[in-house]
Amino acid sequence: MANYFNTLPLREQLAQLAQCEFMDPSEFTDGVDALKGKKLVIVGCGAQGLNQGLNLRDSGLDVSYTLRESAIAERRQSFLNASENGFTVGTYEELIPTADVVLNLTPDKQHTSVVNAIMPLMKQGATLAYSHGFNIVEEGMQIREDLTVIMVAPKCPGSEVREEYKRGFGVPTLIAVHPENDPQGHGLAQAKAYAAGTGGHRAGVLKSSFIAEVKSDLMGEQTILCGMLQTGSLLCFDKMVEKGIDPSYASKLIQYGWEVITEALKYGGVTNMLDRLSNPAKVKAFELSEQLKTIMRPLYNKHMDDIISGEFSRGMMADWAEDDAKLLAWRAETAETAFEKQQNTDEEINEQTFFDQGILMVAMVKAGVELAFETMTAAGIIAESAYYESLHETPLIANTIARKKLFEMNRTISDTAEYGCYLYNHACLPLLKDFMQNMDTDVIGKGLDSTSNQVDNQTLIAVNKALREHPVEVVGSKLRGYMSAMKKIV
Ligand SMILES: NC(=O)C1=CN([C@@H]2O[C@H](COP(=O)(O)OP(=O)(O)OC[C@H]3O[C@@H](n4cnc5c(N)ncnc54)[C@H](OP(=O)(O)O)[C@@H]3O)[C@@H](O)[C@H]2O)C=CC1
Ligand SMILES: CC[C@](O)(C(C)=O)C(=O)O
Ligand SMILES: [Mg+2]
Ligand SMILES: [Mg+2]
């Protein structure tokens, strides 16, 4: 199997990378109709499998689960997830031949073996669905010609797919039909119905391509979404402890700080996040983020280049062949960090304090969001897609850190995202060493000394202008306009 993207002529690569169209809500008036009465069988019951299945069932669809035999025999967590929630669970042989749509929600690493096992059992004309296109795009998986191949990719961890649905909302979702596999021409109708069943249509659906989804998803997760939050957590914690702040306080400030800060981002973009600071703190955060952007830009470019060329997937697949040696070592190393092991104080931290004492965290989020957005759009990814993969999803990942620190984030995201997160973290920590040497508790842990809100007029005007005119803010304010049903969580 060859990297599918790399087999395409340049013109086709560029066309598919740029394929991305925001779908009007009126396109979803038929809801889940295209899948009503059809049998949906989900392979795997983990982060996406369980949560998507719960939403699809609550939307009136017929959902059951198929697991490998050992998971059923050993009553593993995936079996308990499905059976304790009242779903029918069966082996591949029992359920796959009955399925109209098979949703492959196993880890990307397993896709080739899973698809090879289920494909011969699938009935003629059925549909195979993915939530990430890695197997098709990076591994070049060939699917039987009679099968329709679609993708419905929530731009969000599985846990939040469920939480947002329960709040009556949803998460932005990319849908696509594999151009090589749409024999009956109903791929798009099915993908739309599947997205509606998860609640995605309430937050916004982008009609995209497998290629655009893969290249943008990998970039977002490695950099701002997971890599930057992991690196920022470790650096900010160590700095506060070095400067004498109570470690239990530092730990709490970071664990919940990302969530509080990025909630402001979710509602009003980078502009609103910085508007939550006093004028002097805003100017400081802006200056720090400019420095961070200069230092980190080559790293963001490298991640994007390696993702586009296939170098990233080649390296990750080499690790798969080594039984995840790097991934497992990095995971163990993360668990041993001082931040991860530190207990939190019982002391209350009020909402505004997270901003006032977390100026450096605000600067890191701003720098990461803008760099990820700028790098993706420079590579040909459409602004709407780059927005979801940078600004919109950051709060959803921050929610997972608030639950149980980096452990919870890395447990909840896909193994592919976790690998990319550690890869970024390992490159970014040394890159920010000198920068961090100049940081003190005024920007992380205590806040600025002065209580005055005074700043130079011209400086403030220039900062506000730069914030508001950044392209991520321009597309963001348009997209947030479609999200009026979004529910407050902090
Ligand atoms: N995590 C996320 O939030 C997101 C994930 N995605 C995509 O969704 C897909 C699923 O990812 P995610 O939910 O993280 O996956 P998980 O790691 O949570 O999947 C675990 C499930 O897959 C099963 N599984 C593992 N290995 C095999 C195998 N060899 N054969 C059969 N079943 C297996 C497990 O069963 P068992 O008990 O037998 O091990 C378990 O049910 C991926 O394509 C990912 O990129 C997309 C957006 C976000
Ligand atoms: C952020 C990581 C992600 O792409 C996601 C939750 O969207 C993943 O692969 O887990
Ligand atoms: Mg994603
Ligand atoms: Mg991903």
UniProtKB/TrEMBL annotation:
SUPFAM superfamilies assigned: 6-phosphogluconate dehydrogenase C-terminal domain-like (SSF48179), NAD(P)-binding Rossmann-fold domains (SSF51735)
Active site per UniProt: H132
Residue sites binding substrate per the record: S278, S414
Protein name: Ketol-acid reductoisomerase (NADP(+))
Positions of the KARI C-terminal knotted domain: 209-353, 355-486
Residue sites binding Mg(2+) 1 per the record: D217, E221
Residues where NADP(+) binds: C45, G46, A47, Q48, R68, R76, S78, D108, K109, Q110, G158
Keyword field: Amino-acid biosynthesis, Branched-chain amino acid biosynthesis, Magnesium, Metal-binding, NADP, Oxidoreductase
EC number: 1.1.1.86
Cofactor: Mg(2+)
Family stated for the protein in its record: Belongs to the ketol-acid reductoisomerase family.
Classification via Gene3D superfamilies: N-(1-d-carboxylethyl)-l-norvaline Dehydrogenase, domain 2, NAD(P)-binding Rossmann-like Domain
